[in-house]
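Recall the central idea of this unit: under ordinary conditions, the amino acid sequence of a chain determines the structure it adopts. In this exercise we apply that idea directly, starting from the sequence alone.
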Amino acid sequence: MSERPSEDRPELLQGGGRPVEEVLEHSRMLRQMAGRVARIGGWSVEVPSHEVRWSPEMFEILEWDRVVEPTLDHGVNTVYRDPALIADAVATCAADGTAFDVEVEAVTFTGRPIWARVVGEPQYGADGAITRVVGALQDISVAKRAADERIEREQRLERIAAQEAAAADRLRELDRTKNAFLSAVSHELRTPLTVVQGMGRTLQRLGDQLGDGRAEVERAIVEHADRLATLLDDLLDVDRLTRGALSCRRQACDAGAVVRDALVGSPVADRLVLDLPDELPALVDTAQLERIVVNLVENAGKYAPTGPIEVELARLDTQGVAVEVRDHGPGIPPEQRERVFEPLYRADEAAPRPGTGVGLALVAAFARLHGGTACVLDREHGAHLRVELPGPDADDAAHDAAGDDDGQRATTVSTS
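Accordingly, the structure predicted from this sequence is:
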């Protein structure tokens, strides 16, 4: 028969058959192995003496090569990036038993940064008073880096998805714009082209038989041919703007003379009221100034079919000019005043007027090329549009104020 363990044999477990010391050592080894693998160390702080005890794993994780634990203050202030957070958590736990579980940035005693999860809870004595705070520290640097990489990867994928969605929206908008532009252009080209073709055939067929009517036929041909030329100019400028290939080529001129010449033969010449100085020296792109005035007047004639159209030219700075056009039509609602300068935007869709919807967009683009602006001003009756074309001196001053050290000015702009 096997010998039963007697009560006076403490080295044996009751009913187990193995020495207590062996079991305890085995358990200690398992805990140490688990702590090393999981990178977890144990600690305790006595209350109220603040005496600190560390497990061997704590020394290993925090790379503390001494056999004596640091004091509470030394350990907290050396290890944690935010020592007050841990010190307050331990103090609160010791005072009222509030447990804690936090993730914090830390640094080992050799200066290596880590992320740590720190947990703590109270331990009570027989009298119910808190005798110590016990807890654990786990090195979660690997998991934290993996989580950060996963978050970064997810954020990158979200950014890519957002960019792709924006690109898809942009493509759809470009397709819509293209279709609207082609529709408007084809319609606008068809009318003058039909007139030119018809009148040309009339001249071929009847010739001198037209008598006094010949002059009217020739006038119609010239008028609609000019209209075709304007449309083609708009198309070419839109293409150049889209490619960023349109520049501002300033030259010395009499701005008043440029405006007068631009309005000769205007379809609304009989309604124009000009307020132009006898002479206004300026340094601007004369071709763009002409187009600005023509487009503003054409827009006024389109939306204000009756009443005077006032054109005013004034000095803006030493070499710049300001152009203002006022009409007596229905005006532009406040909510549309910024949008009228967008490419292909057509106000009053319910009662569409002829046009491609790029005239005012080109006005704004030409103004930007000069470093200026185009805007709609308040007016009780009718529309009031103002375009400012600063001279190069104003451009230099603006760039100096913005800290442009190299003194170079951008001279191209796109419609995007």
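Residues 1-15, 400-416 have pLDDT under 50 and may be disordered.
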